[in-house]
Specification:
Layout: H1 3-16, E1 31-39, E2 47-53, H2 55-72, E3 73-81, E4 84-93, E5 96-106, E6 111-124, E7 127-140, E8 150-152, E9 158-160, H3 161-172
Antiparallel strand pairs: 1-2, 1-7, 2-8, 3-4, 4-5, 5-6, 6-7, 8-9
């Protein structure tokens, strides 16, 4: 796995705990959301993806995050700090342990921002620490050719998170 594909995986794991204990994670407005992920140091171009959601899909993704967190994380603590949500997590990624703090801010109806700082022990892909920013905003209704769960990745690849989850659950049975 190269550094460009590692960043989204690490970030998603860092956010997986957001649906766990503590204040309820706010639901997002149905429609098309843009997610811009970038390294906090600004050394690489942001990776932009789009996702079509409805209330059911948003809940399914929170449930999926909770399941991932329970399987991979020994610590997932979410608390409110003023108008922000703070998530502290310790998760296993392969042979490395990732310790992360995620600070979420925004109204979650139209936009929110996540600032993530992580350390890796032993180093992950040659890095002992990293930080990233995810800026997410609602851009309007889903496009006519999209259904809830459709995600267009930064590289143009299209996948449906709900369908992938259903396929994986079918394989486990």
């Amino acid at each position: 796995m190269n550094k460009k594909t590692m960043l989204p995986a690490v970030l998603l794991c860092g956010l997986a705990g957001a649906a766990l204990a503590g204040p309820e994670y706010p639901p997002r407005k149905p429609g098309l959301w843009e997610m811009k992920m970038s390294q906090a140091d600004g050394k690489s171009a942001p990776m932009v993806s789009h996702q079509c959601i409805d209330a059911k899909t948003d809940q399914a993704m929170r449930d999926m995050g909770q399941g991932m967190g329970q399987n991979a994380c020994s610590k997932n603590e979410m608390r409110k700090d003023g108008d922000k949500l703070v998530v502290d997590s310790v998760c296993k990624m392969g042979s490395s342990t990732t310790t992360s703090r995620t600070v979420l801010s925004g109204d979650f109806g139209n936009a929110y921002r996540a600032e993530i700082k992580s350390s890796y022990s032993p180093p992950l892909a040659g890095r002992s620490e990293g930080s990233a920013i995810i800026e997410t905003r609602w851009v309007g209704p889903c496009k006519a050719d999209q259904k809830p769960g459709d995600m267009i990745m930064a590289n143009g690849m299209k996948m449906n998170v709900v369908d992938m989850t259903a396929m994986q659950q079918g394989k486990k049975k």
